[in-house]
Amino acid sequence: MPTTTNPPPTLRILSLDAGVQSTFLLKVATTGTWARMWNMSIDAAIFADTGWEPPEVYEHLDRIEQMWARPAGIPIYRVSSGHIRNDILEGRSHGSIPLFVRNPDGSDGHLRRGCTDRYKLQGIRRKVRQLLGYPGTRRIPAGVRAEMLIGFSEDEITRVRPSMVRYMTSRFPLIEHGYDRDDCEWDLRTFYPHPVPRSACVGCPFHTNAHWRVMKTHHPDQWADAVAFDAAIRNGAPGPARAGQPLRGTAYLHRSRLPLDQAPIEHVTRREARAARLRAQWTASVAPGRTPLSYATADPATTHTDHTSDAPAEHTCSPWGCRSDSEPADEART
Ligand code: SF4
Fold first, then answer.
1. Are residues 315 and 156 in contact, defined by beta-carbon separation less than 8 angstroms?
2. Which of 147, 207, 317, 321 could form a disulfide with 211 if both were Cys (CB 3.0 to 4.6 A apart)?
3. What is the rounded average pLDDT of the residues 204-219?
4. Strand, coil or helix: 182
5. Which residues contact residue 30 at a Cβ distance below 8 angstroms, ignoring those fewer than 6 apart?
6. 102: which residues sit within 8 A by CB, 6+ positions away?
7. In this structure, what is the dihedral angle of CA atoms 126, 112, 318, 61, given to the nearest 10 degrees?
8. Is 179 helix (H, G, I), strand (E, B) or coil?
9. Which of 92, 98, 91, 85 shows the shortest CA–CA distance to 331?
10. Could you tell me the distance, in angstroms and rounded to a whole number, from the CA of residue 226 to the centre of ligand 1?
11. What is the mean pLDDT of residues 6-12?
């Protein structure tokens, strides 16, 4: 993994996805002593915007920019490669979101994820090239590079992947310092008395049942948007069909391969139940009486346990590594 520290990088940039971990890293990077102790003095932060984040993510981003980045003189660049929802529905892009598929023979399929590369990584690379002084496709000399600080925590070590380009090297400060997500959340509470929303597209197929339940209960406008999108892509996105690559079978946002408004989102998977139990134990031991910082973990009462649909744990969407250790492998397109 290219984590070169010698010679020093030309620029040091925080990849800010605005979830708990990268929010915590922004606080570290904009706090003088802390930034020096962690060797995390940064030149900029980059937020890659798919255009379909929930409004609370944009509010959170504005707030931390106002509170921490601006006073420290650190620019936060918002980069965009389009609007993932509109591009898919209007046929401008294949989108490549990881939809669940019911194949014509009744078997299960799952589209490969290409959306983070298209809507996040490409914009980040463009911006990094520009900041390094080599925009477009200009050749970047050896030795000119940006060190990207990525907020994977110790509990996410399986998501770590090497950088795919020579002019960007990856560094994982939370793993260097043995911080897991709960450590970040705990320290962050001292500085940030607001919920940190989970950064992900409103209609991401990787949402857990818990996330869908919170959305349905607390953000009905987002839920309606996701339900409408789910119905609209039942026969696949318009773009591939126009390009002569229609979907074989039917597509869904929920892993049950049922329409979202009929999907069994009230069911609690084994993994969710275990995560909730561990979180409750952790909370009781270190912070009795506290409420979760992250809105998506503030799940309302759960009543069922579904042992047959064990969805993968949900992370903030990152362009730098798989969302889970069960990334889809099978394609359902012709
Ligand atoms: S949140 Fe989901 S749909 Fe959006 S870019 Fe990430 S993986 Fe794709």
1. yes
2. 207
3. 95
4. helix
5. 68, 69, 71, 72, 74
6. 108, 109, 249, 250, 252, 257
7. 80
8. coil
9. 98
10. 13
11. 90
**Distance of CA 287 to CAs 20, 82, 197, Å?**
18, 41, 20
Q: Which of 238, 203, 247, 236 is nearest to 91 (CA)?
A: 238
Q: Residue 131 to residues 61, 71, 124, 299: CA-CA distances in angstroms?
A: 21, 21, 10, 41
Q: What is the CA radius of gyration of the chain?
A: 20
Protein residue closest via CA to atom 8 of ligand 1: 115
**Ligand 1 atom at minimal distance to the Cα of residue 96:** 8
Token couple for 23: 């929010």
Ligand 1 centroid distance, CA of 182 (Å): 23
| Residue of minimum CA distance from atom 4 in ligand 1 | 201
Asked if residue 295 has its Cβ within 6 Å of ligand 1, the reply is no
Domains of the chain: 11-306 (3.40.50)
Residue 113 Cβ < 6 Å to ligand 1: yes
- Ligand 1 touching residue 119 (CB < 6 A): yes
Question: Quick check: 77 and 84 in contact, CB under 8 A?
Answer: no
**Average of pLDDT values for 76-104?**
91
Q: How far is the CA of 106 from the centre of ligand 1 (A)?
A: 26
Whether the full predicted model's pTM is greater than 0.70, yes or no, is: yes
Q: How do strand 11-15 and strand 44-49 relate by DSSP bridges?
A: parallel
Contact 324, 85 (CB under 8 A): no
Confidence band of 300 (pLDDT split at 50, 70, 90) = very low
Rounded Cα distance, 225 and 163, in Å = 34
Per-residue burial over 156-191, b = 16 or more CB atoms within 10 Å of its CB, e = otherwise: beebbeebeeebbbbbbbbbeeebbbbbbbbebeee
Q: Answer yes or no: is the C-beta of 318 below 6 A from any ligand 1 atom.
A: no
